[in-house]
Amino acid sequence: MPTRGSADYGARVSDDDDRRSSPRVPIALKVEYKRLNSFFADYTKNISRGGTFIRTKNPLAIGTEFMFHLTVPGLEAPLALRGKVQWIIREGDATDDQEPGMGIGFVYDSEVERERIANTVEKLMVDSLGPVLYEKLIGNRRRTPE
Question: Model's pTM, two decimal places?
Fold first, then answer.
């Protein structure tokens, strides 16, 4: 299986994939971004402190850096984020277990921004799972050194 940043456009990633340094949680949030002169609105499949998977039939090329807006419940305005496409799954390579889309790694301008986004994402994860389940599933992994 290819690693992050490889040029395999048909790369599949399972839930057991260990490339991530942060655990992920299934969550559907609206994502808006611009591609050339067109605007797209898609949805996330999951999110972690380090990135997200955007479901789309038209993924951007691996290595593409772009700005996107994530609509987060409880926030007055969408969260503006910069991300980089790490891997994609084309529609023809999708399976019942893995939808077409693109794995996005968050890109930060500063440590302050990284921490702010990580805290927002962690709150989303707690809200999605509930505090008890979050602590059982993710709390221990979060405390292990990356």
Answer: 0.75
